[in-house]
Amino acid sequence: MKIIQRYQRINPKIRSVLFIVMLVLAGVIIGQLVGYISAPYLLENIENPPGRHEFPPFSLTDEQKQDIINGYTQVSMILCSEIMLLVGLISIFVQTYRKTKSRYLIGFILFVGVFLVKSITYFIAMTPLFSDPIRAAPLSITPLLRGFFGPFGIYFTFFEIIAICILIYLSRE
Q1: CA–CA distance, 148 with 24 (Å, rounded to integer)
Q2: SS3 of residue 138 by DSSP
Q3: How do residues 120-161 score in pLDDT, each as one tens digit?
Q4: I want to staple 27 with a disulfide (CB 3.0 to 4.6 A). Which of 18, 52, 80, 114 is the partner?
Q5: How far is CA 161 from CA 80, 131, 137, 143, in A?
Q6: Per-residue model confidence as pLDDT tens digits over 75-129
């Protein structure tokens, strides 16, 4: 109870920054857990893809496996952080809508909801994005993961995260 009272006495701008930091940390922790839990499935999907016989079976070295797990976990943390920020933004808009009943906020909620669905879909589809290029060219594992699978890779997600953080900060004023 005292923690809540102390939190409410903090400057609203600092509370907004704390809210953003808590959402990002929650996303990082969830992404790390998901990355480590699903890494064996990813490695199995790369070495022995289900129902695909186009590529001959091969085995990854321990170093390659560790690179894949690290890259997959990092991308999981980034995408989970974005998802958590979008959920936080939707919750802010819903709370504001309850107070104001503004139809304008319904549009914002739907707009952010579309981005949330996109982020969740991208997160779910991430396994094929890792496994297919690695199966096609196993020697490209390290360059592929250093670029987060592609010339632009996951870097656009960083810009989205920055934009979402700005929107959360402005929406909480």
Answers
A1: 20
A2: helix
A3: 988 887 765 555 555 455 554 554 455 555 545 667 788 899
A4: 80
A5: 11, 25, 31, 24
A6: 889 899 999 999 999 999 999 999 998 888 899 999 999 999 998 988 887 765 5
Which pair of tokens denotes residue 16? 């907004």
Cβ neighbours, 10 Å, residue 82: 27
Distance, CA of 118 to chain centre: 11
Long-range contacts: 66-71, Cβ < 8 Å, 24+?
A: 67/141, 67/142, 67/145, 68/39, 68/42, 68/43, 68/130, 68/134, 68/141, 68/145, 69/35, 69/36, 69/39, 69/42, 69/43, 70/145, 71/130, 71/145, 71/148, 71/149
